[in-house]
Amino acid sequence: MKKLAVLGGGESGVGAAVLAIKQGYEVFLSDQGKLQEKYKNVLLNNKIKWEEGKHSEELILAAQILVKSPGIPDHAPLVVKAKSEGIQVISEIEFASWFTSAKLIGITGSNGKTTVTNMIFHILKNAGLDVSVGGNIGQSFALQVAVNPSKNYVLELSSFQLDGIAKFKPHIAIITSITPDHLDRYEMDFDKYIASKMRIAMNQDENDYLIYNADEESVLKALEKHPVKSQLIPMSIKKIEGENGLYLEDEKMIIKIKNNILDMNVSDLNVKGNHNAKNAMASNAVARLLKIRKETIRESMETFQGVEHRLEKVVKLNSISYINDSKATNINATYYALDSVKQSTIWIVGGVDKGNNYAELMELVNEKVKAIICLGVDNQKIIQAFNNVIDDIYETTSMEEAVVMASKLAEVNETVLLSPACASFDLFENYEDRGRQFKEAIMKL
User: Are 388 and 429 in contact (CB under 8 A)?
Assistant: First the structure.
C-alpha cells in the first residue's frame, strides 16, 4: 500500500487526507500547531492517523508522497529533507486533480481572482451546470472530489498552491493580474513570483485557453519568458484586434471569441469600476467558451453581488460611508480601492508587510486621503512613506479603536476605508476576521 503524508491540518490538508484514504493510501497527517475540532472530527470519522503540536520525521519521511499545505514554504527544513530523499512533494490541488476527469477552470492573479472565481461560479450555476467552487476559497478541492464530485470545478489558485503542481491542467486558465505580492515568500524577487503564477498554464495544450490581462507589462513579459501552448485570449480596457479579445469600447464590454461577439453595457453590471468590468469580461469569456447562452450571462451579471471584504459597502452612518476592503492584502488591491472612492477618505491601513512599495500609492493618497489610521504591530514603514504628505497619521492596536477614531475624524460626505495593503496575521486570524471585526465595530458606534 502506498504511503502518503500530509503536512498541515487545515482545510486543504484534511481534504487531501480524506481523498487519499478513499483512494487506498496509508495516510498520516501532521500539524505543528493545534488542529481545529471540526478537522479532528473529520480525521477521526475517516480513521486517519494524525498528530498535532509536532512533526514526527520518521513517520513523515516514510511516505512516497507528501502533500504540503500552501502556508508551508518550500524551504521549510522538513520539506527540503523530504525532497532530498526522493519523496514527491505536491499541493492538495495537484493531488485532487489526479482523481477527477471534470472540466477545470483555474483563476490566479495578485488581485481579482476571488471576484472572478465567484462570478464564473454564479454564471455556471445559473446556467444549470453541475459545478463546484474551491481551491483557495470554500471547501477544499480534494474533499469535494472525495465526497461530492462535480463535472465542473472553478478553482481560485494562489501562487503557493501552483508551486506544488506537477501535472495539474485547467481547460481554461485566467491570469487577472501580476503585481508585487508575497515577495517575502519569494526572496523579494518579483520574477520568482511571476514564474509561480505562470505555472497555471504550464501543462496546457492547444485545446486549452489562457485568458490574461494584456494591460500589465509584467504579464506580457511573463508570456514571452514562459511561452504557453494554449489558445490566448487577451483582456484590456483598450480595443484588441484579432479573432480573440476582451475589451472596453464606448461603455460596452466586448467579448470576442473566434470573431463571435457578445457585448454588454458596463452600466448593467451590479459591481462598479474598470477592474470589475475586466473581471466580468474574463468571467463572460469562460461562459462563452462553455457555450452558455448570452441571456443567461446577462442575467447573471445583473444579479452578481460582489465578494464580502472586497470594496464592500457596509453602511452609511451620519452621512459617512464605511467601506470594508479587508481583502486588500497588497498595494495593487489598495490602489483599486483608493481609486474607486470619490470622496475625501479616512484610510485604515497596516498589518504584516509583504514587501510593499508605498510610493505607488502616493498620488492617490495625496489626492484623496485626509487622515491615515495605522492598524498593525509595526507601522514605521507606512508612517515614513506618508508623513510628508499627510499631517494626520495615527497608530492603533485594535479594530474598535481604529473605527472609533475614524468616525471622529470623518465629516459629512466623507468615507472611512479599511484597505490594509498588508496581511492580517499580526492582530487577526485572517482577512475575514479583520473585515468582520471592522463591521462589528461600526455597528457599535
Answer: no
- Is residue 316 predicted with pLDDT exceeding 90? yes
Assign 425 to helix, strand or coil: coil
- As a whole number, mean pLDDT of residues 298-320 equals 89
Do 263 and 147 share a structural domain? yes
Torsion angle, alpha carbons of 408, 414, 420, 426, to 10: 10
Return the sign of the alpha-carbon dihedral for residues 117, 119, 122, 123: negative
Residues 115 and 14 in one domain: no
Report the first-to-last Cα separation within the chain, whole angstroms: 60
How high is the pLDDT of residue 270? 75
What letter represents residue 445's amino acid? L
C-beta separation of 338 from 419 below 8 A: yes
Find the domain containing 435 and state its range.
312-443
Residues 6 or more apart whose Cβ sits within 8 Å of residue 401: none
Q: 477614531: which residue's cell?
A: 405
Amino acid present at 102: A
Is 326 one of the annotated binding-site residues?
no
| 112 is an annotated ligand-binding site residue | yes
- The pTM (predicted TM-score) of the whole model is 0.80
Grid coordinates in use for 125?
Answer: 450555476
Residues 125 and 230 in one domain: yes
| Of 350, 349, 336, 343, nearest in space to 320 by CA | 343
Nearest to 160 by CA among 229, 89, 85: 89
279 annotated binding-site participant:
no
**Is 109 marked within a binding site?**
yes
Give the three cell numbers for residue 268.
Answer: 448593467
Same domain, 147 and 288: yes
Q: How confident is the model at residue 311 (pLDDT cuts 50, 70, 90)?
A: confident
Supply φ then ψ for residue 219, to 5 degrees.
-70, -45
pLDDT in tens, 177-229: 998 776 778 778 888 999 999 999 999 999 999 999 999 999 999 999 999 99
User: Would you say 376 is a known binding-site residue?
Assistant: no
Q: Are 203 and 270 members of one domain?
A: yes
Q: Which of 410, 415, 420, 335 is nearest to 381 (CA)?
A: 420
